[in-house]
Design brief:
By secondary structure, the protein is mainly beta. The protein has one helix at residues 78-85; strands at residues 6-15, 27-28, 38-40, 45-49, 59-63, 68-74, 88-90, 93-95, 105-113, 115-130, 138-146, 156-159, 164-166, 170-172, 177-186, 193-196, 203-208, 211-216, 225-233, 236-244. The protein folds into 2 domains: 6-159, Elongation Factor Tu (Ef-tu), domain 3 (Beta Barrel), CATH 2.40.30; 164-244, Immunoglobulin-like. It is globular and about 85 Å long. The chain starts with 5 loop residues before the first strand and ends with a strand.
Length: 247
Amino acid sequence: MGLITLGLSEIVVGAAAPGGTMPGTMAKVGKTYTDTCKINMDAATVTEHFEEGKSSPEVRKKKRKLPVLKFSIMDPDTQVLTDYLGGEIVDGQWGFNGDESVPNRSWRAKSEQGLWTDIPNGDVEAVINADMSAKGIYLLDFTVTPLAVTAGKAFKSYPAPTLVVSPTSLTFTSAADATGQTITATSTGSVTSAKKDDTAEWLTVTRNLKVVTVKVSANTNSESRTANVTIVADGNTAIVPVTQAGA
């Protein structure tokens, strides 16, 4: 029976993973414009060799091409333009010469159901596509091309995990937060375990059915601190990084 894949949940991005293993921390790239996310695969490049006078080839060699991920981000800010086109921000203004290089990144396209797609080491080409009319919209069009990895595969699709958490990371100010922030698990059963790193005494983690609450004590140090919250449901594990700013 076929697996039905439909509906984009979000596209997340992280540090490039030329080793083939996706990074543990990824963030939403921006607001994906409706109906723009596509995965396209061009036909293979074909080489044929014929005997003189014959119409059927003796040899037919195919070099397959990898699928590419295409989508558009709506209403990018100057930081997004800098991240994916290059250039720099000076006095709040984005400057761009056109010869700047942009680092490779890892990408994950999450569907609402069906297959998710990973590109561990993707070349990024972003192009401004802005309609400045009263009814227009400012778009940044992306094409992500898979590059080689040293292990595993350059392009991967797989059934969406049964345990999905939202948000995928938490950020606190330096002040104590006795109310806390919540992480919601999308799973068949309730969360069976939610725990912090053993050394993170500044974190308090509690769970109630599918909701995990994270609270922090005050950070009196000048440096920020980070720890992980590990959530288990339906036999699957999700790790949520928690960062608290320095004083």
